[in-house]
């Protein structure tokens, strides 16, 4: 059997030490031809120079820098389009956060094996674990309009999440799902191109939902490899770089992008959603202003 060539695309922003540690961990992977592309998303902490200093002599690693910080979608697209100019369409690409942990030295090789056994496949991911347990948000169903209102309006958020999360069968090898976590998933370069990459109108959040809907519209499927795992803890980078209100604004913007350009939600509901989110942000600003005065 031919040894699979796999490119791991890592997006770095102001976290070069985490990225270097993760690259060293990835290099322990066996049974594959490994190439690592690190995209520094125009960091402000001299990350690019630090990455070059620590990794420039590694023939398996290449470091490039985006023109500006356009968020998750832009940064990954920057890397994907760079690879598109250099590699065959059937090259396996892994989109990966830098803050994950892999303890299986053959994880990527086994992920390719599972990929090759799935029909009409777009992307595949190992089962994400958090705090040593399978994460409920390792995969989920594409949420609808009511979810995007209910999870903000103070309704039962846990119940809303349960409605979109899957029950994960422990004994099954793979299962078809609609959305995969963006922390670590794999597909072929040609699939990213076929689906027109990530939507750069989003800066942060909901990229997986948009990609999941694109996959569904293309008649393809995403798969979760239930017998493979990786560990992920919520990144401190977002919290360090961005306050809660800014995170909410990005979340709401991405949801509007989803409904306006992908789900084709009707204009009345879309207008309601925009007004609802604008009022919610306004109320949060007033609340924060009042707290500062106390």
Could you describe the 3D structure shown?
By secondary structure, this protein is of the alpha/beta class. Helices cover 44% and strands 22% of the residues. It has eleven helices and twelve strands. Strands 1, 2, 3, 4, 5, 6, 7, 9, 11 and 12 form a ten-stranded mixed β-sheet that branches. Strands 8-10 form a two-stranded antiparallel ribbon. Helix 1 packs parallel to helix 2. The longest helix has 27 residues. The chain is globular, with a radius of gyration of 19 Å. The mean pLDDT is 94.
Task: State the gist of this model.
The protein is an alpha/beta fold. Helices cover 44% and strands 22% of the residues.
Task: Set down the secondary structure blueprint.
Blueprint: E1 5-12, H1 16-26, E2 33-40, H2 47-55, E3 61-65, H3 71-84, E4 92-96, E5 100-101, H4 107-117, E6 121-130, E7 133-134, E8 139-140, H5 145-150, H6 157-164, E9 174-177, E10 179-180, E11 184-188, H7 189-194, H8 207-217, E12 221-232, H9 236-241, H10 244-262, H11 267-293
Helix pairs in contact: 1-2, 10-11
């Amino acid at each position: 059997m031919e040894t699979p060539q796999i490119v791991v695309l890592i997006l770095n922003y102001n976290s070069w030490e985490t990225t270097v540690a993760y690259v060293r961990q990835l290099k322990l992977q066996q049974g594959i031809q490994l190439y690592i592309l690190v995209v520094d998303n125009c960091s402000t902490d001299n990350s690019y120079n630090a990455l070059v200093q620590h990794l420039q002599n590694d023939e398996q690693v290449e470091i490039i820098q985006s023109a500006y910080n356009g968020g998750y979608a832009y940064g990954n697209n920057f890397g994907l389009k760079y690879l598109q100019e250099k590699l065959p369409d059937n090259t396996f690409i892994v989109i990966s956060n830098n803050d994950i942990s892999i303890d299986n030295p053959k994880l990527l090789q086994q992920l390719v094996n599972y990929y090759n056994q799935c029909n009409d496949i777009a992307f595949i991911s190992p089962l994400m674990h958090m705090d040593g347990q399978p994460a409920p948000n390792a995969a989920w169903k594409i949420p609808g309009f009511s979810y995007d209102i209910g999870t903000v309006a103070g309704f039962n958020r846990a119940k809303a999440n349960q409605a979109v999360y899957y029950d994960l069968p422990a004994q099954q090898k793979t299962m078809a799902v609609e959305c995969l976590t963006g922390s670590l998933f794999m597909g072929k370069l040609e699939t990213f191109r076929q689906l027109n990459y990530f939507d750069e109108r989003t800066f942060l959040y909901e990229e997986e939902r948009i990609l999941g809907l694109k996959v569904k519209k293309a008649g393809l499927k995403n798969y979760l490899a239930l017998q493979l795992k990786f560990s992920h803890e919520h990144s401190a980078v977002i919290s360090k770089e961005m306050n809660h209100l800014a995170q909410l604004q990005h979340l709401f913007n991405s949801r509007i992008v989803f409904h306006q350009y992908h789900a084709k939600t009707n204009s009345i509901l879309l207008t309601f959603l925009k007004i609802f989110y604008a009022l919610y942000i306004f109320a949060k600003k007033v609340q924060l202003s009042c707290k500062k005065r106390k």
